[in-house]
Backbone:
């Protein structure tokens, strides 16, 4: 759940201004640069074009004027290619004339210190006053292959228009993707630059509404307006347009200075990953994964339930396929129907078994037999995706076989609306030209590793999004008062446990004492064995201070332990029963100033930071998400019962997760973090035995 009160938002530019940026009816290039003007002829732009440069009367066959004011028409959009101060002056002139959009390519703005930041603020002021859409500064520009127009600083390949739009926060990444030769057909590409005025949320909004765009992909380093950005991701999901993003920064750990254990388990990248999952964004980790997911999505063919039908004339590769499938969550091998098994069985030699994946090496009349096998599998109602191993680089007879199998796949693609893909054993081994030929015939080409992962992501994306879960009742008034009473200071001990109890999270029976005698009295009431721990509310981590002494079996042991803790400076002790029959878990709530609140569950106790076994979700859990979180944990085997141990009460654990989520929904903006560690899950029930609450400091509110 994004933090509305703390997310940084701005007024979005108008639809007409965005349209002028992507589809201007007339353009002017301000400053030096013959290449952009020449590119208008190459791309076939049908609108009016002019240059603005007092040194020339004509550039690249287009008229050139000394200023915008001297032009015989007011352009819809301008490409500004001047130094920093001249760019600002040109933008101001454009705004005064009523130009609706501009791309500013010059560097040296907010990325270059205080002086540059002041210059960028001037751009923002001009744009806000005029309602202009401004791309950049520090941008490579925008290209629209569909409408044959650009505001781009350099030459680019004029390819056929496709249906994939790219939002890139890096110019080099755009070039790497364009030069990949993987068969992606682009409709638009925009390099965001500094996002002074318009940003990725605006471009996402435009592409969601553009009927020419089927797939939206991006290289996103940061999301400056997350509330708007993820709202547009929701719209894209509703419109059936996959948003596929590569976000670097996985090693960017904000773990230092973390007050609570949950802070040590979370970092901005994990927050983003959780939000991507919540809002239907397909997240990838490499360019290869990005390209393969785009390749699958751009065809528009549904992967259905992800049931693969695979043919591969190699037993060794079939084993590798099995290894890759093991890493997937959504795709699986289809179980061939009886008719398929019967028809294929008649074609296979006696030493081969009809199973999926199918090794059909050694069949007679290879061409005719291959056609029949391919068609039988692809037409099987149990099969959603048809895949064929393909390696065209073999010489001689084997090379001819590979060509023939590729042709058979093309015939299959013409007869079905299911995805049909060729699987290259070595990714990139098929030439770009050949990939394009197959793509023209609705056959995709993917590497062996990426094929499984791309379809796995596609199937996951296509699944319906469950509704938000019902929020269990909590005592919000009492909890808010407790947060206020501590004035932004972290607290543990009795008030922290009372805080959890007000949310309906079970807490272990606890006695708070200030003398050895009172400690013995409490233990007599609870029954031995007991635990004695420091109870001062300002002590944040007792274990690190040797402030927790467990399994005290009688009054003598307790007396010695209590005396030791008091001698160490503790004013209050907590006496609790020693809970032995259960598994220590951690529950956490972590709030990011911009991205909002997140709920965490994982392995707890002393193993929390050693094992790093935790699952994270944005607050506002959907139906089934707590169960999914537990399923992601390595420790879930112990929760289910392992090697004869009894299964533990996961329903009680899920109930505690839901109540923590209720705290996040209601009070997330008032809380920096909650650390319930451990919460002991038992055969029957679960109890919190320790907690740390860190309120949001007044300056964060």
Residues:
């Amino acid at each position: 759940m994004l933090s509305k009160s703390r997310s940084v938002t701005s007024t979005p530019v108008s639809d007409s201004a965005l349209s002028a940026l992507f589809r201007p009816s007339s353009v002017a290039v301000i400053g030096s640069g013959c290449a952009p003007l020449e590119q208008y002829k190459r791309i076939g732009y049908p609108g009016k074009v002019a240059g603005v440069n007092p040194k020339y009367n004509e550039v690249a066959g287009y008229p050139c004027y000394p200023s915008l004011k001297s032009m015989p028409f007011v352009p819809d959009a301008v490409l500004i290619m001047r130094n920093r101060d001249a760019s600002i002056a040109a933008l101001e002139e454009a705004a005064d004339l009523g130009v609706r959009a501009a791309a500013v390519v010059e560097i040296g703005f907010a990325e270059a210190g205080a002086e540059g930041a002041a210059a960028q603020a001037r751009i923002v002021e001009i744009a806000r006053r005029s309602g202009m859409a401004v791309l950049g500064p520090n941008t490579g520009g925008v290209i629209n292959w569909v409408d044959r127009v650009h505001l781009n600083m350099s030459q680019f390949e004029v390819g056929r228009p496709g249906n994939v739009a790219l939002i890139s926060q890096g110019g080099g990444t755009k070039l790497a993707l364009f030069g990949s030769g993987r068969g992606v057909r682009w409709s638009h590409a925009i390099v965001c630059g500094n996002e002074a005025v318009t940003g990725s949320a605006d471009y996402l909004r435009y592409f969601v509404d553009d009927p020419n765009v089927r797939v939206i992909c991006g290289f996103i380093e940061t999301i400056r307006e997350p509330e708007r950005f993820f709202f547009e991701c929701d719209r894209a999901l509703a419109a059936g347009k996959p948003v596929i993003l590569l976000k670097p920064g996985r090693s960017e750990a904000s773990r230092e200075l973390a007050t609570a254990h949950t802070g040590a388990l979370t970092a901005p990248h994990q927050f983003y990953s959780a939000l991507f999952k919540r809002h239907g964004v397909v997240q990838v980790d490499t360019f290869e994964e990005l390209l393969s997911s785009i390749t699958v999505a751009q065809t528009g063919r549904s992967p259905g339930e992800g049931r693969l039908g695979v043919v591969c004339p190699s037993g060794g590769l079939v084993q590798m396929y099995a290894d890759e499938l093991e890493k997937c969550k959504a795709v699986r091998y289809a179980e061939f129907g009886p008719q398929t098994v019967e028809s294929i069985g008649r074609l296979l030699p006696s030493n081969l078994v009809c199973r999926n994946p199918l090794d059909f090496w050694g069949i007679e009349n290879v061409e005719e037999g291959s056609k029949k096998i391919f068609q039988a599998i692809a037409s099987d109602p149990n099969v959603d995706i048809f895949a064929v191993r393909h390696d065209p680089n073999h010489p001689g007879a084997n090379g001819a076989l590979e060509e023939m199998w590729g042709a058979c796949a093309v015939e299959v693609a013409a007869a079905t609306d299911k995805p049909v893909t060729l699987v290259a054993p070595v990714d990139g081994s098929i030439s770009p030209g050949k990939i394009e030929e197959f793509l023209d015939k609705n056959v995709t080409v993917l590497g062996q590793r990426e094929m499984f992962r791309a379809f796995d992501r596609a199937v996951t994306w296509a699944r319906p999004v469950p509704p938000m879960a019902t929020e269990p009742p909590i005592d919000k008034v009492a909890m808010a008062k407790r947060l206020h009473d501590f004035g932004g200071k972290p607290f543990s001990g009795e008030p922290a446990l009372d805080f959890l109890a007000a949310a309906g999270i079970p807490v272990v029976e606890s006695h708070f004492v200030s003398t050895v005698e009172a400690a013995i009295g409490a233990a007599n009431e609870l029954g031995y064995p007991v635990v004695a721990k420091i109870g001062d509310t300002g002590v944040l981590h007792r274990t690190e201070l040797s402030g927790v002494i467990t399994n005290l079996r009688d009054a003598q042991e307790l007396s010695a332990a209590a005396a030791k803790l008091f001698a160490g400076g503790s004013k209050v002790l907590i006496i609790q029963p020693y809970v032995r029959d259960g598994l220590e878990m951690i529950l956490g709530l972590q709030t990011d100033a911009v991205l909002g609140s997140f709920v965490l569950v994982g392995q707890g106790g002393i193993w929390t930071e050693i094992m790093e076994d935790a699952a994270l979700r944005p607050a506002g859990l959907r139906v089934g998400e707590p169960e999914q979180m537990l399923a992601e944990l390595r420790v879930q085997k112990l929760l289910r019962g392992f090697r004869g141990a009894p299964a533990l009460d996961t329903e009680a654990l899920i109930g505690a997760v839901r109540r923590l989520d209720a705290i996040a929904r209601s009070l997330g903006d008032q809380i920096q973090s909650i650390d319930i560690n451990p919460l002991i899950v038992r055969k029957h029930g679960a109890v919190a035995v320790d907690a740390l609450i860190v309120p949001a400091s007044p300056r964060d509110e």
Observations:
- The domain at 15-248 is CATH 3.40.50.720 (Rossmann fold).
